Amino acid sequence: MRIVVDLSRCEGYAQCAFLAPDAFRMHGEEALMYDPNPDDSRREQVLRAAAACPVQAILVDQLEGRDVPVEASTS
Ligand code: SF4
To answer: Which of 13, 16, 33, 53 is the most interior residue, by most CB within 10 Å?
Structure first.
């Protein structure tokens, strides 16, 4: 899956880092580091983090149709 964080919106509340620590990490007090391509097994965490972001800075799967690697997992 793909995620994009609009860092101009991000206020560093760290909700996302708390809810999905594998994908989001605070670097220092305010700078957010994130994995733009977290494993699909993290989807639920990441969606929860996106929903919890107070400024809706986290966009999930907005880049469909570009060079998105499709991993064949038919579950
Ligand atoms: S929850 Fe939103 S505002 Fe807070 S650090 Fe994450 S992206 Fe930034």
So the answer is: 16
CA distances from residue 59 to 16, 20, 37, 72, 74 in whole angstroms, order as listed: 12, 14, 12, 23, 24
| CA–CA dist 17, 32 (Å, integer) | 8
CA proximity to 38, closest of 74, 72, 4: 4
33 lines ligand 1 (CB under 6 A): no
Ligand 1 contact, 5 CB (< 6 A) = yes
Cross-strand bridge partners of residue 58: 5
Reading the chain (75 residues) residue by residue, the pLDDT tens digits are 999 999 999 999 999 999 999 999 999 888 999 999 999 999 999 999 999 999 999 999 976 555 555 565 555
